[in-house]
Amino acid sequence: MKKITIFSVIFVALFMLLSQVSLAKVKSESMVAVWLFDEGKGSVVTDSTGNGHDGKIEKGAKWVNGRFGKALEFDGADDWVSVPHSKNLGFASGKSFTITVHYKGSQLGGSLFGKGYEDKSQALPWYLLWNDGSSPKVTLFLRDEAGASFRADGTSEVADDKWHFVAAVADASKGKSSIWIDGKKEAEADFNKKSGYGTSEGVVAIGRHYDRYTKGIIDDVALFNVALTSDDIKTVMDEGLEVALAVSPLSKLAITWGEIRKR
Fold this sequence. Notes:
Blueprint: H1 2-19, E1 31-35, E2 44-45, E3 55-58, E4 62-65, E5 70-75, E6 80-83, E7 97-107, E8 109-115, E9 126-132, E10 139-143, E11 149-153, E12 164-171, E13 176-181, E14 184-190, E15 204-206, E16 208-209, E17 212-213, E18 215-224, H2 230-239, H3 241-245, H4 249-261
Antiparallel strand pairs: 1-18, 2-3, 3-6, 4-5, 5-18, 6-15, 7-12, 7-18, 8-9, 8-15, 9-10, 10-11, 12-13, 13-14, 16-17
Helix pairs in contact: 1-4
């Protein structure tokens, strides 16, 4: 009977491994910070990676239902989320990174996400998932240590009160940045891969740039220290970050086998 139980558990564990292999595409160690916005109350948004990059809700953004679980609604006037500076939230020269966010709203004023330009003084070098408020589209905007600018401009309207998934990729191995809307790459641009980005001591700002603010609902925000592939982007878009953060099938298999050995 004991042998039957052991083989049954092993079979189940192997089935889990094979059936969930697609969820292992996005490696959890590549996640610098993940804000699910699922708290539903309070003034703190927790970094679900455990890396400690918790944020503070500024000026009263409201808890609402989101794309996955709960989310935050920003009024477009003065609401935003601040995350204290950490060297891990910036990227040295030659380092790739990716920003992902779900957004539903009517005004992209300022930025959905950025580091180094949250107020009226910029702190070079910075990165922004940006719009100046004059367009319903979004841009990955990089400015290097010397003040040179690099833009990958999205072509689809995302400020149309419908849910959209936005991914911004800076691939330092190729010196190419790109903007992805709803899983499709819309633009690509060269950038200075010999410069770092977000390495100054400025805070991370969600929903704000300069004196401009975004109006709408923001959900499932993440920062990765790799250039996500098209498959990775689709996984995060369709499955959500909570699934991507879940224990990998290999870990589950190891835990199950450890439990068997105790019997």
